[in-house]
């Protein structure tokens, strides 16, 4: 059994004990120091299986034993001395030594080593039992999170919190490839990081900063472990950072399901060799469970989104059916009645001009019906808009030309931006705004288009929209004009929503209507 022993002895009698142990027992890895302060520094920095200490008038081991026990309640401590007494033994046992042996002859070295092996074996067994209990409890708590998590982010955050609540883990985080696919960036984290992730750059290629466990796990999709961060040459780019934060080992687990890599989970421990074969096996199984849960949450979110979109489509369909049932009747009835009268006038030759008037009126009714159909088709598109670069300046001028309005004036007062959007639907947006201005602002309307810090506006010099009507005018079928069909501004609102923009109505400088469109980080921002 390999045992790493810290030997602390300031005595100078005879051949040093650590020299004899190293010569006779090759399974012992002996590190010797003479001073208590050096021993404490080593124990704070490195991991040992046991401490062996001497004792005499020049070196009193009692203060060392007390200091070690303050730091580690379990590590075996054996006092091995040629000088002592029952009183000293009693005191040392009270301080927490595991064993007290007198150096009465060469054979006592065998007794010391046997006692060391027994003590280390027992301590490791207790440690394994404690680790098993800890891991079992951790898995149970994570499984509860998996069952009740409502989102992927909530699941990942809670898993990190549970991991870092469990010794010896200090820090845990989920990471994923950035937009370029070149670096690993954090999604969520928990524990003693205090800026660690801001200091390290983890690449996903074969460069030196891609040779750590994170880069390797991403490329191979296999669990990667760095057992001692201070001595692992592949961790050299981040040595200063891990020394500052006290991380000694790390495991990186790919979070996979059905060959899809969702993220990587990195767990840092405060001691070297924290991730032995048993720990790796348990954490690997845990990662598989997390991957399954994330896949289920992503599938559920996608299904929810599809369901919501279907509900929105059904809602649009219901509105369209309502508009058809309500608004198609009138122009159809007008057209049918006028054509009947025109046919009667033509047959009886009573008044040819009257027949022409009836035909013109019927044509107007059918044109209104055509407008209704065009509007309903625009509304039926619904959903999120396409994303291609669109020059608002070009679309504004094209939509204005479509109106073919004599006497109307368009004033584009600033360079309009290029946005990501659907050009056909944006042209429809501007066309309906211009049509609305012409309908309400008189025969020679003036329309102004300009920019906002986070969007653009369209304003006219008409009578404006009263405060109490500014929300209602965006509803389907609402109109204040006998010539309107109540779809134009509803279409404008629908197109704005599809692009992730907000639409607000206010008063223009001339007292007319002003429509303001704004985007944010979730909408189609300008380039």
Proportion in β-strands: 15-25%
Low-confidence stretches: 481-486
Separation of the first and last Cα atoms: 66 Å
CATH class of the largest domain: Alpha Beta
Domain unit count = 4
Average predicted local confidence, pLDDT: 81
Instruction: Estimate percent helicity.
Output: 40-55%
CATH architecture of the largest domain: 2-Layer Sandwich
Strands of the widest sheet, in order across it, are 8-7-6-11-10-9
Count of runs of 4 or more consecutive helical residues = 15
What is the CA-atom radius of gyration, in angstroms? 40 Å
Largest sheet: 6 strands, antiparallel
Assembly state (oligomeric):
single chain
Query: What name does CATH use for the topology of the largest domain?
Result: Beta-Lactamase
CATH superfamily heading of the largest domain:
GAF domain
The count of β-strands is 18
What is the approximate shape? Answer: rod-shaped
The class by helix and strand makeup works out as alpha/beta
Q: Can you describe this structure?
A:
- This protein has 527 residues and is α/β, with parallel strands linked by helices.
- It folds into 4 domains: 3-128, 3-Layer(aba) Sandwich (Rossmann fold), CATH 3.40.50; 149-298, GAF domain (Beta-Lactamase); 328-381; 388-518, 2-Layer Sandwich (Heat Shock Protein 90).
- It has 15 helices and 18 strands.
- The strands form 4 sheets. A 6-stranded antiparallel sheet has the order 8-7-6-11-10-9, with helices on both faces. A 5-stranded parallel sheet has the order 2-1-3-4-5, sandwiched between helices. Strands 13-15-16-18-17 form a 5-stranded mixed sheet.
- A hairpin with a 2-residue loop joins strand 10 and strand 11 (260-269).
- Helix 13 (392-403) packs across helix 14.
- The chain is rod-shaped.
